[in-house]
Amino acid sequence: MKNLPEPKFIPLDFEKIESENEQIKRAEEFFKNLNRRRTVREFSARAVPFEIIEKAILTAGTAPSGANMQPWRFVVVTDAETKRKIREAAEKEEFESYHKRMSDKWLKRLAPLGTDEHKPFIEIAPFLIVVFRITSVTENGETEPTYYSQESVGIAVGMLLAALHNAGLATLTHTPSPMKFLQEILGRPKSEVPFVLIPVGYPAENAKVPDIKRKSLEEIMIVV
After folding, report:
1. Contact in structure between 130 and 153 (CB atoms under 8 Å)
2. What is the pLDDT of residues 52-98, one digit of tens each?
3. 100 is a domain residue
4. Which of 182, 204, 221 is nearest to 75 (CA)?
5. Angle at 156 between CA 152 and CA 158, to 5 degrees
6. Which residues form the domain of 183?
């Protein structure tokens, strides 16, 4: 193919850790920190510095992406009326899911989590971060799809959750289905598809989480 842009390279900015013991120590400390991360459904209305949200989103924006198209949009919702509309729409969809759409097997899986169609955390948490997956871009009058956008946004969301937890905040990954109402309420174009809704804030006083366990290393890793 003709007229392809020439790649440009710059020196890699990389922190080389000389000591293997230090590497292992950092890996262990990071694991211990992230292992305390839990999905929270009981939030405090206590204010959160907006700079933390900005830095966490900047961190998410460092994620790798297909063809470096960075196909993500992070919409931060603080307005009480907008949060109310989102809660009402989410609870409407969730009612349909819990009472009509979900199979008995699905409901059985959800039972230990104690969830239902009621989502008060959407209004209580000081921030909602709605992550959209950009499916196409238009440049110079031509439209093309983004590449590996599902995988790219998934990685970015994982980094966002880690960054928020590292800053001392609690999160919840909420995926009401379908989520088109988020596109409509927030006025996003058709090329931006809702990916996940993340309430962010401090946990409520005496907040509780389900007594569930994570899989062991032996269950999730295979060495060949």
Report:
1. no
2. 999 999 999 999 999 999 999 999 999 999 999 999 999 999 999 99
3. yes
4. 182
5. 120
6. 39-203
